[in-house]
Amino acid sequence: MPSGRYETIILYSRNDAFGDGLIRIPALRAARTAFPDSFIVYGTTRSSSLEHSLNRHAGHLVDAINVRTPLARLVADHRKGEGRLAVVDFRISARWLLQASASLLGRGIAYEANFPAFALSWRLGQRPEARPGHNAWRYHRLIERLAGKRLPFDHRLEPGPAPAADRKAA
Predict the structure, then answer these.
(1) What does each C-alpha distance from 168 to 158, 164, 165 come to in angstroms?
(2) For helices 71-78 and 94-104, what crossing angle results, to 10°?
């Protein structure tokens, strides 16, 4: 996909258990770094740890978290006027990715898919590269491809506020 300014970027996954949410945080941070002025939506077909247990680490990286929401509905809700829309699909099922790709075809929506074989998402003129060995790197690479450039991989979590007992002891 050509890099550029996107009014809205939808990051989409199926289900986020705690570990899934943790390994997606570097990709969320890369998206916010590459597209600081874009409205970034994190959506899932089921529940998400980013909505509750990991919200203090991810909440500032996205503008909205929509759980249990079909991708088609998110696209319809955020498709406004002439603003450019992008979808980064973290799901791994080739059937879902092909279905989503076909539904977005010809609509002017940038689409980056996490194809299981990784090579299925290469573009003409793009130099082949090895599939990243870890899912966190793979999700991050999808954001880099959308941005059209390499981005820093930052896996750190921001420290939360100290518990009240620790503050009293200090």
Answers:
(1) 22, 6, 5
(2) 30
In this prediction, residues 24-38 reach a mean pLDDT of 96
Containing structural domain, residue 64: 8-169
Residue 58 near residue 31, CB atoms below 8 Å: no
Helix (H, G, I), strand (E, B) or coil at 164: helix
Q: Structure pTM? A: 0.84
User: Is the residue at 1 inside a domain?
Assistant: no
CA distance 34 to 151: 7
Residue 59 lies in a domain: yes
CATH of the domain at 47: 3.40.50
Q: Answer whether residue 165 shows pLDDT above 70.
A: no
- Please write the tens of the pLDDT for every residue from 44-94: 999 999 999 999 899 999 999 999 999 999 999 998 767 799 999 999 888
Residue 75 forms part of a structural domain: yes
In a domain, 78, yes or no: yes
> What total of structural domains would you count in the chain?
1
Residues 6+ apart with CB under 8 A from 61: 25, 28, 29, 31, 32, 40
